[in-house]
Specification:
By secondary structure, this protein is of the alpha+beta class. It has a domain at 94-218: Jelly Rolls (Sandwich), CATH 2.60.120. Helices cover 29% and strands 37% of the residues. The protein has helices spanning 2-72, 248-252, and strands spanning 76-77, 84-92, 97-99, 110-113, 115-117, 123-127, 132-137, 145-154, 157-166, 178-179, 184-189, 193-202, 209-211, 220-229, 233-242, 254-255. The radius of gyration is 35 Å and the shape is elongated. It starts with a helix and ends in a 5-residue tail after the last strand.
């Protein structure tokens, strides 16, 4: 009987030891799994941080590439840190219609040039067709107003005429502006040399489209830069480089009339 009890004790001890071994193995497997998961997370987080940093570098390089193009007219940019940028240019204009390429924010002027420019950005002497009519269209849902400044020249005298239109008669954006039930405004060009149409939305933002019967001159260029950093991480940015208003416009132009 004593031998039987001793045998049972030995078997129970062996069983307990087996259970302990299984528990230890399970615990080890869990700890190993958790360790591997933490390791993968650390590696993933490091990769994400690295990619974000490289994306920032690629963006900054693309931006610097555009600045370099504007200063030196060079489409290739290599700052010497292993990063690089390539810039391409697309002419804006030379068509029967011009668009703002996106909504123009309230109080932000949109320039539509009616005269050609020289290579150095100065005004040329080739003007939009005389005695024609331009059509300015806003969004169908636009209920704000637009202010229009029309710059022209007769001989050596520069002048600007101003007009304004509301597109809502129940809650006009600007008191005193003309109400337009149509979302398209027809703007006449006389026998003067047409220079520039500046359209400023008021009250809210809108897309702007200017159309005419003749081809509009070049307005500037759209620049696309692709910046590359690290092992090929790329970022692309676009910007529109429109000819700006020369300072003498503000110094020598007299207003024919003023918007109230």
């Amino acid at each position: 009987m004593g031998e039987l009890n001793m045998t049972n004790k030995i078997k129970n001890n062996q069983s307990n030891q087996g259970q302990i071994a299984i528990i230890v193995l399970l615990a080890s497997a869990i700890l190993l799994t958790l360790g591997m998961s933490a390791s993968r997370k650390t590696v993933t987080d490091t990769k994400v941080d690295t990619d974000e940093e490289l994306l920032k570098e690629a963006f900054n390089t693309a931006e610097s590439g555009i600045n370099n193009y504007l200063l030196n007219n060079n489409t290739q940019y290599n700052p010497g840190d292993g990063n690089s940028a390539v810039v391409s240019s697309l002419s804006i204009g030379n068509a029967n219609s011009l668009t703002s390429e996106g909504k123009v924010s309230s109080n932000t002027p949109q320039l539509f040039w009616l005269v050609n420019h020289n290579n150095d950005g100065t005004i040329d002497s080739v003007y939009y067709s005389k005695s024609t009519t331009l059509s300015l269209k806003v969004d169908d849902t636009f209920t704000g107003a637009v202010k229009i400044d029309y710059y022209s020249r007769v001989g050596t005298n520069y002048s600007v005429s101003r007009s304004g239109y509301n597109f809502s008669n129940t809650a006009p954006a600007v008191t005193g502006y003309t109400y337009s039930a149509s979302k398209t405004i027809n703007f006449p060009i006389g026998t003067e040399d047409a220079l520039l149409l500046v359209v400023t939305p008021l009250g809210s933002s809108t897309n702007l489209t200017l159309s005419g019967s003749s081809v509009f001159p070049l307005q500037g260029e759209e620049l696309t830069a692709v910046g590359t950093a690290g092992d090929g991480v790329k970022t692309q940015i676009k910007t529109r480089n429109i000819y700006q208003i020369p300072s003498f416009f503000f110094e020598s132009i007299t207003a024919q009339n003023a918007v109230q």
